[in-house]
Design brief:
The complex is a heterodimer of chains A (359) and B (106). Chain A is α+β, with helices and mostly antiparallel strands and 359 residues long. Helices cover 50% and strands 15% of the residues of chain A. Chain A contains 12 helices and 9 strands. In chain B, helix 1 crosses helix 2 and helix 1 packs across helix 4. Classes of the chains: A alpha+beta (359), B alpha+beta (106).
């Protein structure tokens, strides 16, 4: 067996096993006949052509003009979900949340003029209702409180009489941040008309000025509200978070590609075994609807949100997919997918129609 | 009907051919313009077989290589005839309009 023959056989592995058993020798013969003499390796175009059509053959249903579209939708959503899982795992490669000592040190460095009476340290990178996720929380995360699972933030609030006007507080904080080596982002200002008393007899424009800064893997956010209507409410709030660890992006890409490949192969396996049956198609349609709907709803909304506000740290991938806020959709889609796969397992596995007809 | 499909059916119109023979005949019919790759050919053959337009004819072994011959079915022949008629009608209409247009520009 020459090297060209071996290389073609390796490329033919893109085709499903049953197809290779019936058509492999024939295909190999045509490939060898069609290769100009003197070549010991396939041309890139021929190799890519074989892989592309081998992946198509894995879907079965040779007469179908839509099966590639369904397989692509399946592969993409599988890739997105596995990418999201991979990114979540990769978050654990970062440092834990700032503890009390680190928080106190940062506050002393950046805002020593203010008296922080309420310092809360977060127990984990991601929390559910500000608490570490426990097994017992899973049903609530599934429905209806999935949206409360989010990246956590340590907080500190300054109460009492402000030592300086709000504008000076913001400017001083920005200067101290820069001196301490933080990269300071542009301020963001939100204004709204609020009541100055309980009866709302007089209204005033209430402004919240926020400053975000980053140093290493830590994100600092300071917000000042002016005027302060209720003296019991903090006049200045600080939040501390961790930035996205460097491993998250490569993990997401690798996980996504692997998930997409597995999604394509699994779809193809089920498709070849269930050709001509209606029930598995319904399961697939239900799965894709339940898995894609949250992503289609959340993705654009998340994009608008990111464009509207500065985001030194982007929301994690799973939130772009509407998870776990709409986890009930994912769970229902998974049940439907498993049902479809169970129907595929129950088949005798007759192979692709073309192989049946030709063989 | 896409051009590669039309050319494959045309290649089989004269009689059964094996895979490599189809590739060669497609190149001849298209005067070298279309060179199908084997992956493309076999996806098309699978589809045409599933649609009942081509069928397996026989197998031969030549110099140790398996050669599987395909033939046009009656449905395949009818489909090719219909497509050829359609393309001819379009070509005739295009040529008639070109002949009518040319005297105005000369």
């Amino acid at each position: 067996m020459g090297s060209l023959d071996r290389r073609y056989r390796r490329l033919l592995r893109a085709y499903p096993p049953a197809y290779r058993r019936v058509r492999g020798e024939e295909l190999l013969g045509v490939l060898m006949d069609a290769t100009p003499p003197g070549r010991d390796r396939p041309a890139f175009r021929a190799a890519a052509n074989l892989v592309r059509h081998g992946l198509r053959a894995r879907l079965g249903r040779p007469a179908s003009r839509t099966v590639v579209m369904w397989a692509t939708l399946t592969a993409v959503i599988c890739g997105l979900f596995t990418a999201a899982v991979a990114t979540r795992l990769a978050w654990e490669t970062g440092r834990p949340m700032p503890d009390r000592a680190e928080t106190t040190a940062i506050l002393a460095e950046v805002a020593p003029e203010h008296r922080f009476t309420d310092v809360q340290v977060s127990p984990a990178l991601f929390t559910f209702y500000s608490q570490r996720v426990r097994l017992g929380d899973l049903d609530a995360i599934l429905f209806p409180d999935g949206g409360e699972y989010e990246q956590s933030s340590g907080t500190a609030n300054a109460t009492g009489t402000p030592p300086m006007p709000a504008a000076a507080a913001v400017g001083t904080a920005e200067a101290r941040l820069r001196e301490a080596g933080w990269h300071v982002y542009s301020r963001s200002v939100e204004a709204y008309d609020g009541c100055t008393d309980k009866m709302c007899a007089v209204t005033a424009t209430i402004t919240t000025t926020s400053v975000e800064a980053r140093r290493g893997d830590t994100l600092f956010q300071l917000s000042v509200t002016d005027p302060r209507i209720d003296p019991e409410v903090p006049y200045l709030s600080v939040g501390l978070r961790r930035t996205t660890p460097p491993a998250v992006l490569p993990a997401g890409v690798a996980g996504g590609l692997l998930g997409a490949a597995l999604g394509w192969l699994l779809f193809g396996w089920a498709s070849r075994r269930t050709e001509g049956q209606v029930a598995p198609r319904l399961c697939l349609a239900a799965t894709l609807l339940l898995w894609w709907t949250p992503a289609v709803l959340a993705g654009p909304a998340m994009l608008v949100h990111h464009l509207h506000e500065p985001h030194p740290v982007w929301h994690p991938l799973w939130e772009w997919l509407g998870q776990p806020a709409l986890a009930i959709f994912f769970a229902a889609g998974t049940v439907s997918a498993l049902l479809g796969l169970a129907m595929s397992v129950a088949q005798s596995g007759a192979g692709a129609p073309a192989t049946r007809k030709v063989g | 009907m896409r051009e590669p499909t039309f050319l494959i059916l045309t290649a089989l119109a004269e009689g059964p051919r094996h895979g490599y023979g189809i590739l060669q005949e497609v190149e001849t019919v298209s005067k070298g313009r279309v060179r199908l790759l084997p992956g493309t050919l076999y996806t098309a053959l699978d589809r045409l077989a599933a649609e009942g337009l081509v069928a397996h004819e026989r197998d031969e072994r030549v110099e140790g290589r398996l050669r599987r011959y395909y033939r046009l079915t009656a449905d395949g022949s009818a489909a090719l005839e219909a497509e050829a008629t359609r393309l001819q009608q379009l070509a005739t209409a295009a040529r008639a309009r070109l002949r009518a247009y040319r005297p105005a520009t000369s």
